[in-house]
Automatic annotation (TrEMBL):
This is O-methyltransferase domain-containing protein. The active site is at H284 (proton acceptor). It holds the Pfam family Methyltransf_2. GO terms for molecular function: O-methyltransferase activity; protein dimerization activity; S-adenosylmethionine-dependent methyltransferase activity. It comes from Sorghum bicolor. The keyword S-adenosyl-L-methionine applies. InterPro entries: COMT-like, COMT_C, COMT_dimerisation, SAM-dependent_MTases_sf, WH-like_DNA-bd_sf, WH_DNA-bd_sf.
Length: 382
């Protein structure tokens, strides 16, 4: 990669952070518009100015199964100061009723108080302050992203949900992101975007974290596409046998002039045996239950830890202890990226969430290597 000859890894990763932070900024007004449309400020106001998520869901009439997703929306809005949040054990409402055992308590700030629809102000002399904010939020509210998320949160809890349904699908006539990528590659070049990210990131991985591949004799890149990552690894470690596992329609397009082997299959069914399994930006596409299934298949494919078996994951670890708490742009980019993943039913996980799914899949230990900007390498050991 020529850029690595001109810039350091950290300079390149910092530049990528700057671009991602700017590009993901669209999710901030979308989150605010969604909170207004779901009447979150009014709901907290009716509940005395402080409420837990279960209380907000019940009072606002939002499907209880959306609790986890609402927490992700509120994380963005508390980070930016629209609401405040404290742990229940340290917070009491004005009437001294405790909120213990129900999770964090969200409170109105001066900013969110301006968003409350106060009927006492609806006169020609003093219209609510939120009206001008509503006008500025119109582009975000009317975008496919905004409409899809609102429809997602307002789904009837008794209505059966088709498999694969997501805010993205609600925005694009029922298409999943994978279906749209396949049918509309010109205007939605998803595969090219993934390949470009691999071309950018993998040389940095090998330069800064190449030791994770030392001592391996075989590696299978799960959902590795056309083999960009595996080819880069194989070139750096000629004695390492690299295999790519992906769906038959993907493998059918794979290049033939490479030292990487391609196997058609399904990671939810089985994974070819190897010393190590490599998962680059795969698990953040799937919910916890699906990730556990994938990781269990990964565990079956590798030998014991004593024999060198491990899983190598490249993904985000949101708000990890290893990230600098003072780097606001770093943390905000991670939580905004999480909203992007929520749009397709994916999730960016923090360390405890990674620990939960890996231990449920039967792994005994893990290691986080935070050397890739907003992303990390996670090693799982059987």
């Amino acid at each position: 990669m020529a850029l690595l000859d001109e810039y350091s890894s950290q300079e390149l990763l910092q530049a990528q952070l700057q671009l991602w932070h700017q590009a993901l900024g669209i999710f901030k007004p979308v989150a605010l518009a969604l909170a207004l449309d779901l009447q979150i400020p009014d709901t907290i106001h009716r509940l005395g100015g402080a409420a837990t998520l279960p209380q907000i869901l019940l009072e606002a009439g939002i499907n209880p199964c959306k609790l986890h997703d609402l927490r992700r929306i509120m994380r963005v809005l508390t980070f930016s100061g629209i609401f405040s949040v404290k742990q229940a054990a340290t917070v009491a409402s004005d009437d001294n009723d405790r909120h213990d055992g129900e999770g964090p308590v969200y409170k109105l700030t001066t900013a969110s108080r301006l968003l409350v629809r106060d009927k006492s102000l609806t006169t020609t002399q003093q219209l609510p302050a939120l009206m001008y904010v509503q006008l500025m939020l119109s582009p975000s509210r009317e975008s496919p992203l905004g409409k899809g998320l609102y429809a997602w949160f307002r789904q009837d809890q008794d209505q059966p949900q088709p498999a694969g349904l997501s805010p993205f699908a609600l925005s694009y006539s029922g298409q999943t992101i994978w279906e749209r990528a396949e049918r509309d590659a010109t205007t939605f070049p998803f595969d090219d975007a993934m390949a470009s990210d691999t071309a950018f990131l993998m040389p940095i991985v090998l330069k800064e974290c190449g030791e994770v591949f030392h001592g391996l004799t075989s590696l299978v890149d799960v959902a590795g596409g056309l083999g960009g990552a595996a080819t880069t690894i194989a070139a750096a470690f000629p004695d390492l046998k690299c295999t790519v596992l992906d769906l038959p329609q993907v493998v059918a397009k794979a290049p033939t002039d490479t030292n990487v082997q391609y196997i058609a299959g399904d990671m939810f069914q089985s994974i070819p045996p190897a010393n190590a399994v490599f998962l680059k930006l795969v698990l953040h596409d799937w919910n916890d239950d699906e990730c556990v299934k994938i990781l269990k298949n990964c565990k079956k494919a590798i030998p014991s830890r004593d024999a060198g078996g491990k899983i190598i994951i490249i993904d985000m670890v949101v708000g990890s202890e290893s990230s600098d708490p003072s780097d606001i742009k770093h943390i905000e980019t991670q939580i905004l990226k999480d909203l992007m993943m929520m749009n397709i039913n994916g999730v960016e996980r923090d360390e405890q969430e990674w620990k939960k799914i890996s231990f449920e899949a039967g792994f005994k230990d893990y290691k986080i290597i935070p050397l890739l900007g907003v992303r990390s390498i996670i090693e799982l050991y059987p």
